[in-house]
Amino acid sequence: MKKNTSRPSASASSSAANLLRQRWRALDARERRGVSLAAGLVLIALLWWLAIAPVLQTWRSAPAAHAQLDQQLARMQALQAEARQLQSATKVSTAQARQQLEASLTQQLGTSAKLTVLGERVTVTLSRASAASTQRWLGQVRANAHAIASELRLTRDEPAKGAAAAAAPTWSGNIVLQLPAQ
Hints:
It is rod-shaped and about 105 Å long. The mean pLDDT is 85. By secondary structure, it is α+β, with helices and mostly antiparallel strands. A 4-stranded antiparallel beta sheet has the order 1-2-4-3, with helices on one face. It folds into 2 domains: 14-88; 94-178, Gyrase A, domain 2. It has helices spanning 6-26, 29-88, 94-109, 131-145; strands at residues 113-118, 121-130, 148-156, 170-178. It has 4 helices and 4 strands; from the N terminus they run αααββαββ. Helix content is 62%, strand content 19%.
């Protein structure tokens, strides 16, 4: 004889339900209240862990995440404004760029820098130039002369003997700049 395999699972579940109903009826009223209370507590705990706690966690962390996203947005808007400014900037000729480069070099670095021009390439040789002044000068060169640093070979100088160890750092070496093409 062949047995129907789908029928036993259905009958097994109905017999399990019948068994639970019989056990429930066998309990007295006090035991039924206790089991109902325990089942209610388990249901409340599951509801808390699966539905309420994640929402509360998200709600608590939302202000910090919002502030971080606001900072990122402000940074992106600043970069966008800078990109638009660079796109709309007037073109600078090689001669104008060289003049602006020389003026800013004298103003920012003084005698600690020497300039050598070869076409659209400019080599600046630094000798114990202040790190802060060099940084400001490179920013001016990029913004005003539209020159781009293509090579940097800088070394940090050791403080002179007898000088304070906390003295501002200085750099020596070469910076090769590419002036804008005509």
